[in-house]
Amino acid sequence: MLVLIPAYQPDHRLAGLVRALDHHHVLVVDDGSGSAYAEFFEEARIAGAEVIHLDHNRGKGFALRTGFAHASARYPGHDVVCADSDGQHRPADIEAVAARVGVTDAAMVLGVRAFTGPVPARSRFGNTATRVLFRLVTGLTVTDTQTGLRGYPAWMLDFLTGVPGDRFEYELRLLLRAARQRLRVEEVRIATVYLDGNRSSHFRPLRDSARIYGPLLAFAASSLLAFAVDAGLLAILVTVTGQLALSAVLARTVSATLNYSVNRAVVFDRVPHRRAAPRYAGLALLSLSANVLLLSRLSDVLGSLVAAKLVTEVTLFAAGFAIQRAFVFGRRRAGDAAFVFGHRGTGDAAGAWPPAASVPEGFDRTRSSGSPKRPPYTGVTPGERRRPSPSASG
Prior knowledge:
The protein has 394 residues and is an alpha/beta fold. The protein has 13 helices and eight strands. Strand 2 (25-30), helix 2 and strand 3 form a beta-alpha-beta unit.
């Protein structure tokens, strides 16, 4: 087992964490902290850590990928647990995640917080918002999408190094790829610890939030672009033809085609046109009907056309995103299990677990594992379902 700690401008708590984990190999990646912080990395080295220095700050995602690549090349067969350097992950919780990785076939083990007790408002809001949006984007529920305490089996390292992302968005992208490729993720309950109001966090609210919420923002931008094209074409065509109904149909056809193309190319998966196009057309007709009905009913209830229009558009926007993600551009096939996220708490009654999942095809466990606790993968065992190979580009 290898513990990977990305660190940017740490303090003495880094060396303390290394000492507490002295029975593990600890790899610290200095994310370009600068000479002013050299003493803290030297303390960590003396405490027993291996330290890699980056020449300038590249972001947490880049530091993690650097550590994964190093672990894969220098320590093949070692599972990896990632932890933060600021003391907010207790050694006992790191050990709990490490223990679970050692006995499960899940692709990821998340150390999830319950967010009880004193929690900074921005942290509570940020995790709640990301959890809701993740559910909207993927249809799956993750208790703590922003946790930095995560465990990965050795056979996942090639996948981890291939997923793009240099900053905080990287960890969310890993979850998104896991959800898209139906990889199994388990949760272990850990303590909720925030020190000094989370002042040690290097999260940049505007820039990093934009990276994290990129998929939903891209969908919103696509919808706004389609609306602008629809409105502009409608005005032009009515002026040229004098026919409102014909102009509305033509404008909506062009804007809907544009929206479909952008969503397929940028926002969602590139599923075949023969599958996605008819479903999108059906959704467009359903959306148009729902728009008329909702607008009519809400106008009577609210007594304001403007308010009714606002509520209608927000409702249909959320519904449209969820339906396009799951139905129009979704890649789920018949026979896929309904659950891929296993949940297990420490100290809480654990719910029913999903069936044991096979190691995804395409991974050579005999090359990277080397651990007696997991024998070489020789195929799908009876009762298990075959899944597509996870790939960093998928």
